[in-house]
Amino acid sequence: QVQLVESGGGLVQPGGSLRLSCAASRSIFSVYAMGWYRQVPGKQRELVAAITSGGSTNYADSVKGRFTISRDNAKNMVYLQMNSLKPEDTAVYYCNAYRRDYFSTRIDYWGQGTQVTVSS
């Protein structure tokens, strides 16, 4: 079945770095964009960074200058390099991919999430 698998989360001190990886199944075809969302208890899931099939990127204001999203189309993978991490970056990070159906309705695919904890 359709599968997205994240890895790379963990515990890091403030100011540290982590790199998240997401492997996408080839069963996800005609993907328009892939990206990363994060969620903390009691809050909505928010977009962190996204990259289109054409290479265009978009970042949340809170992570601009600190996080970098990249992709490897040959391996169907997307990465998130996170530098200068802050306690407020603590969240469950989810890999996302989406496409459009015949009616241009967005169809999303999600990974299971990986925990990132920034604490001393």
- β-sheet strand percentage: over 45%
Number of helices: 0
What share of residues is helical? under 10%
Q: Regions with pLDDT < 50 over 5+ consecutive residues?
A: none
User: What structural class is derived from the secondary structure elements?
Assistant: mainly beta
Mean pLDDT: 93
What value does the Rg take, in angstroms? 14 Å
Outline type:
globular
Largest sheet: 7 strands, mixed
Describe the structure.
This protein has no helices and eleven strands. With 120 residues, it is mostly beta strands. Strands 2, 4, 5, 6, 9, 10 and 11 form a seven-stranded mixed beta sheet that branches. A hairpin with a 4-residue loop joins strand 7 and strand 8 (77-82).
Blueprint of the fold:
Blueprint: E1 4-7, E2 10-12, E3 18-24, E4 33-39, E5 46-52, E6 57-59, E7 67-72, E8 77-82, E9 91-100, E10 106-110, E11 114-118
Parallel strand pairs: 2-11
Antiparallel strand pairs: 1-3, 3-8, 4-5, 4-9, 5-6, 7-8, 9-10, 9-11
